[in-house]
Amino acid sequence: MRAVVYKGQCQVAVEQVEDPRIEAPTDVIVKITSAAICGSDLHMYEGRTTASTGMVFGHENLGVVAEAGPAVQSIRRGDRVVLPFNISCGFCFNCVRGFFNSCLTTNPDRPGAAYGYADLGPYRGGQAEYLRVPFGDFNCLKLPGQPGDQWEDDFVLLADIFPTGYHATELAKVEPGSTVAIFGAGPVGLMATLSAMLRGASEVYVVDRVPARLQKAQQLGARPIDFTQGDPVEQILEQRRSNAAIREAMRPGEEKMLGVMCGIDAVGYQARDQQDPSHEDPTQVLDDLVRVVNPTGSLGIVGVYMPKDPGGADPHARHGEFELPWGKLFSKGLQVGVGQTPVKRYQRHLRDLIIAGRAKPSMIVSQHMPLDAAPDAYKDFDQRGDGYTKIILKPDMRAA
Ligand code: NAD
Ligand code: ZN
To answer: Is 164 touching ligand 1 by the criterion CB < 6 Å?
Structure first.
């Protein structure tokens, strides 16, 4: 079969690799109909992880079951399924408590496994014609409809970023009436925006510098903040300070709480420096969040921070160690939630919002490209150019 293979820094190729086969009786083989490229793939693509050449990328996968192992009971050939990017067993100490991101049996080296991702086990990714899915009963979510229907782009976003955006709002404790600041209007930030709206947030500020992405945030009902126009924290404080209705509704002393109650990091360690966006500043967003979130508020940090970064600016950064405003965080009494999403925890509920017509996450999809165009797709998405918000690779689509 054809698959997207990592060839070294900023290089992928579409190559012929061996077809996957049923290796354990609980396995399922899925014929991929859509595989999205993720901001997390770009960390590997840019050489900012321990990914080794020859890996097949792709953890956002949707397709149809081509073959089910003899021990699989609930999933059959022909079923349309989406796979959480985490690969989990469902029976270990962490899985039974809902921490599918930290499965203790599927990765021989450490807790947590995923398709086609550095350090997350020996599994190939789904930017390919076929994918092997371990523990098929547990890892396949059954879907209605047919490949290519009105839900195709919505359903592929259930593999990772819609649940990840939702997880961010869960960690940040977004509820009806909440005030929220979301850093990053990439696919994950936009899904956090959609999720904050679904949860009934009142004011949602979304910070980025890419006009098309900020425009999508605005379409979702958020207030866009362009960080190239000045300190985004100051911009948010000023919007709240200058709003007479907000001021008039305040209780005594509340003017000391002009920030927001919920803060979300949807950027991670490759955050850009606000003063000079041509450079990275790995703690820019964390610093901003601690400034903009009010005392007693909560942070949801889903942007990735890598324990090993060959491209880090100094020896500390190369080990994922950073200086943080811990004193300010402590004195504000902020609650912090951080880490990889346990996708399965949210996936079924979000699927049902899509089916019911209450959520249309696909509004962020900007391109469909044939699998063979993956080298260009990676290059374009990596530029975060205006208009490249979320790219979906289609193994069945032929190159023009
Ligand atoms: P992306 O790279 O397309 O989006 C990041 C956005 O952040 C870009 O639009 C960029 O312009 C913006 N940005 C950069 N510096 C900024 C700053 N200082 N302030 C505000 N915005 C800034 O990626 P994505 O697909 O949206 O993913 C975002 C992050 O989420 C990545 O780190 C990715 O690895 C991570 N992620 C985590 C999980 C998880 O399980 N926790 C799952 C998926 C993705
Ligand atoms: Zn992803």
So the answer is: yes
Domains, the chain: 2-160+342-394 (3.90.180.10), 164-338 (3.40.50.720)
Q: Whose CA is nearest to atom 3 of ligand 1?
A: 186
Statement: the pTM of the whole predicted model exceeds 0.85: yes
Distance 243 CA to ligand 1 centre (A): 30
Q: What is the pLDDT of residues 200-216, one digit of tens each?
A: 999 999 999 999 999 99
Query: How far, in Å, is the centroid of ligand 1 from the Cα of 302?
Result: 9
Distance 314 CA to ligand 1 centre (A): 22
- Protein residue with least CA distance to atom 24, ligand 1: 39
Record the tokens describing residue 260, joined without a space.
């927001």
**What would the pLDDT profile of 265-291 be if each residue is shown by its tens digit?**
999 999 999 999 999 999 999 999 999
Ligand 1 atom with minimal separation from the 389 CA: 3
H helices present in the chain, as ranges: 39-45, 93-96, 136-139, 152-156, 161-171, 187-198, 211-219, 232-241, 244-248, 284-292, 315-318, 326-332, 344-355, 374-382
Q: Tell me which residue of 155, 184, 185, 200 sits closest to 269, measured CA to CA.
A: 184
Candidate from 37, 40, 338, 391 with most ligand 1 atoms within 8 A of CB, to mutate: 40
Our CA dihedral for 5, 187, 293, 326, rounded to 10 degrees, sits at 0
